[in-house]
């Protein structure tokens, strides 16, 4: 800070009769004193006083003397020096600034603020002075003026040549150069919010998220009104699993500027993640009340209305989005994905008109794929009365799947290899030796399997019980597994700590397993809104981690929801998933995936019989009361009649089956795949013996 205060901001020059040579010597001495200030203020003070003995009353030397005294804690003496300097140099911004900082340290806030205001009035680009003024204003309850001062300080800092060079380098992708520049700025002013934020963004772009977050937190703590820093902090925090801190900051953004639609959208997305659908809905409605011409907001509103169970409102929102922008494929697919809505000929015509007539570029591939999925659903509905429409439906589904698959990275061999390793590791002996490990909590009920297997129905039945809370598809177990996998994967061309995941899991000790189980319980707490003792985690992909679940949460319940291979796989193939499920966009690949899932679950059943309770969808449809009693018995809770009237449960449901589980069980979907049987040979071949033996498993598995 010495260089920002001393010698560059309007302090008068040496006496006119000082000779050129003497002046050069004094300037050199002043420069040396300024450089000493940051690291050795006592030596800087001695140097300033030496200059004053040679040139009494030299303004720069007096300024350095006052600053050094302040830094050393000799505040009364510093004030005396600086009051005299300000009186003799009334147009010197640096002198007023230094006096203001000294008075602030003495606790004389009113006088300090007057001097700081005077300094920035004389020289508005003093970023650190604006920040000091903001701190005092906030401490004295003047939040509005504090925010304005912070903004002015950040705008001043943004004009600094060093930060400008850093921002330019970052924008051009020269991140190492940008980091060098911004660190140089922080070496001079370690608390500069603009520099802290810029370095945070540079590190984030370099993939150093854990290093970026403290810098952004420091920028926000130093300058609470620094909107750009807080917004970037929210967006980075939102990428991780822990949304509580992100939501706190997003709430501050909305409170500070309720009319800012982008901040409201950001907060709403976080509310959705923690299950506060009503809160998100209110924000979306408020945005649309001000600006009804925003298709993306109508689309998001439709999503939350669907989740809450307001189907009519969801339909209206999706149709408003599609009307505003007919090329928005997500609007059409979301409408079709309600399952209970039948698209009309006018909808088909509108989608066809919006489809491109030439090659699809990357920027439109997602929208076009979703429109093909929606057209597939529209023609599938028509095929109930017009069997010939099934061919058109299948053709659109195939086109949408091909577009989606073309942008995804999925290798079936990796899934098969992981299943082999899982079966080899989780033997009866391995599991028996670790039976008492892990966190003893019995709260979680994991519903695993494939998407479109009836798992949402199982969840809805369970969540209709007075002791069980339904949450949603929680990512936490997969995130724990991903963190473990990062210890296996290669880094910078070198192997990780372990040869594979099996080797890592085998190396875990009792304390490791207990800590991870406790971590899962703690991470999922934000999704629990009631005091019910059990909760459902309906992430289907957790079948891949059933062994890990047993290690870290041995008392958790695992429910395997299984459906006829052709029905399950075909339903998954014609579903456009918002994320994940990368195996589902090719009939052969989803068939192999289903077979791999059955193989792993069979091996686990053999290793620890009875640890997994299996629900066969067709059996649930045929004998709902008997299957529900068995399901509740597996959890260890008494039977309740309310579980048979599950469709009356108005809880939020976020999956594709949200509308289907809001009506009684029906049999239409059990064999819906038969209309498309002529085109399912690749799926049959991939399923192999799993298809022929269902609901049992192939002999010898």
TrEMBL record:
<dbReference type="InterPro" id="IPR011990">
    <property type="entry name" value="TPR-like_helical_dom_sf"/>
</dbReference>
<protein>
    <submittedName>
        <fullName>Tetratricopeptide (TPR) repeat protein</fullName>
    </submittedName>
</protein>
<dbReference type="InterPro" id="IPR019734">
    <property type="entry name" value="TPR_rpt"/>
</dbReference>
<dbReference type="InterPro" id="IPR027417">
    <property type="entry name" value="P-loop_NTPase"/>
</dbReference>
<keyword id="KW-0802">TPR repeat</keyword>
<feature type="region of interest" description="Disordered">
    <location>
        <begin position="1"/>
        <end position="22"/>
    </location>
</feature>
<feature type="repeat" description="TPR">
    <location>
        <begin position="295"/>
        <end position="328"/>
    </location>
</feature>
<keyword id="KW-0808">Transferase</keyword>
<dbReference type="Pfam" id="PF13432">
    <property type="entry name" value="TPR_16"/>
</dbReference>
<dbReference type="InterPro" id="IPR026634">
    <property type="entry name" value="TPST-like"/>
</dbReference>
<dbReference type="Pfam" id="PF13469">
    <property type="entry name" value="Sulfotransfer_3"/>
</dbReference>
<feature type="repeat" description="TPR">
    <location>
        <begin position="93"/>
        <end position="126"/>
    </location>
</feature>
